[in-house]
Amino acid sequence: MQIDPLQRSVRLNARELAVFDRQPISRGNGYSPWRAAVGQQWHKSAEACSLSELPEARFEVSIKANWRHRDWLFQLSGRIDQLLPTKGGFLIREVKTIRSPLPASDESLIELYTEYFAQAATYRAMLSVLPESREHTIEAEVQFINIESGARQSVTLSSQEHALFEQQLDELVPFLEERRSSLNRFRGADIQPAFTTLRPGQAEFFSTLHEAALQARFVLAQAPTGFGKTGIVLEHALKHMQDGLYDRCIYLSCKSTGQLETIRQLKQMVGDGVRYMQMRNRSEHRIESKGHSCTGDERCDAHIGQHWREADLHPPDLFENGTLTLSHAQSIAADTGVCPYALTKACLPFAEIWIGDSNYIFSPDSRPVFLE
What is the arithmetic mean of pLDDT over 255-262? Predict the structure, then answer.
C-alpha cells in the first residue's frame, strides 16, 4: 500500500483492501511453501475444468481501476483468478483452497472467509467502471476447494456480499485520514539540529549524504565511532520526511545500547512531536497475568478481535509522550486480554520512526514483523 496523504490518494491491490482491518485478528499459521504448492496445483485443476466447459475463459486476468470514495482516490490493481463469459457479460470466479470440510452452508463460508468475498466484490466493482465491461452484467463467486479431498463448492455473491467492497473502503478511510493528520503534525514539528556546533568533517558528511540520497536508492555511509553518525542520519531523515521525500524512517542497530542512544537523540531533537516505536521481540513482551498469559506463539492471538473490540482500543490513542513503551503495552494487555506483542505491532503503522534490531532485516524468522 502506497499512500500520498497530500494528494489524498492511495495505491493498493485488491487483496490488501480485502484483508485490511484496523484491529488485529488471528490469521492462522501464515505462509507455508507446501501449502502454496498444493494450492497452485488445485488452481491449475480448476482452470482445466473451466476451460473444458468454456473455451473462451480467461485466467489470471490483470486489472487496474480508479475509484473515488470519501474524498480519496483509490488506485486499485489485482489479478482475477478466472473471468468467464456469460450470456449477458462476465462471471468473476475467485478460487480459494481451504482445509475446512465441504460441503458447508453458504452462510458459514461467508462468515469464515469474509475477506475472500470482499476480494471478489472488489474485482466486480473494478470491472464495473472499465469502459470495456461497463455495459455488461457482472457477477462474482468464490469457488472453494478442499485441499485434501478435492471437494468443491461455489458461493455466488449477493448484494450483501457486494457491499463488502465499500465497507472495506470505509474501514480504510479513517486510517488514511490519520496518516494525513500525522503528516501535517510532522510538518509542523520543530526539529532541532543534532548538534549545536558541528565538529570537523560533520558538515561535509551532511552534504555528501544529502547529495547521495537524492541520486541513489541505497547509500552506504561510514564514519569512525563517536563521529556523530546517529545524529547526522536522524537529522537527514527527519528533514527529508518533513519535506515529504520519505514516509518513514526505520533505524536498526545491532546493539540495544545503539537503540537507546537513537531514542535519546531523537527525543532531544523533536521531543514528543514525532511518534516512534522501539520494536522488541515477542519474548520480551511476555507477561503472566489474569487478563492475558503469553504462550509465545500464535495462540496468543486467540480471540484477539473480540478482546480488541471489547476494550475499544485505538492505536493512535495508545501513544504516550510520543511512543508506546514495553511496560505500557504489558499493562494494557493485563487489563484487556490483548497480547502486548500484538499491541506493539498494531501501533507500528501509526509511528513515523521505527527503531529495532538489525535482525529484523537479516533474520528470516524476524523479518515478517515489519512486513505483516
Answer: 90
